[in-house]
Specification:
Length: 129
């Protein structure tokens, strides 16, 4: 270390090392860790969307889903996806959903009263949960 006017002078390497340490601390404090980011992205990828048609049918047929049912629907779509199904029929708690697996979108929903009268077409798989 050199001295100038009775003050120590830092070398350029000491200054760079300090700035690297400071920058590293800022990055660690400001950004979430990798596992948190990965977890958020995986959860986003599992979300289920409702088409406008499905929303209207659910409202008209008084079909309401709780958190547990939504999670079971997500799991059913996950299972269908692992089997390579493109459009699936998911039957859960006396409710049937036709779901486009790739888009993770519910196309329509039918309650127990209308299950007996319906024929489901354009599906290539079914999941009972």
């Amino acid at each position: 270390m050199n001295i100038y006017n009775n003050r120590p002078i830092q070398s350029i390497n000491q200054i760079i090392d300090k700035s690297k340490t400071t920058a590293k601390k800022q990055v660690q404090n400001d950004s979430p860790d990798f596992s948190a980011i990965l977890s958020n992205k995986l959860n986003e990828a599992r979300e289920i969307k409702m088409s406008k048609h499905a929303e209207l049918r659910m409202e008209a047929r008084n079909i309401k889903l709780d958190e547990n049912q939504v999670e079971r629907l997500k799991s059913a779509v996950d299972k269908a996806s692992t089997k390579g199904v493109r459009d699936t029929l998911v039957v859960m708690d006396d409710i049937a959903f036709v779901v486009n697996v790739n888009a993770r979108t519910v196309i329509t929903a039918v309650n127990q009263n209308e299950l007996k009268e319906n024929v489901f077409t354009k599906i290539d798989g079914a999941v009972f949960t």
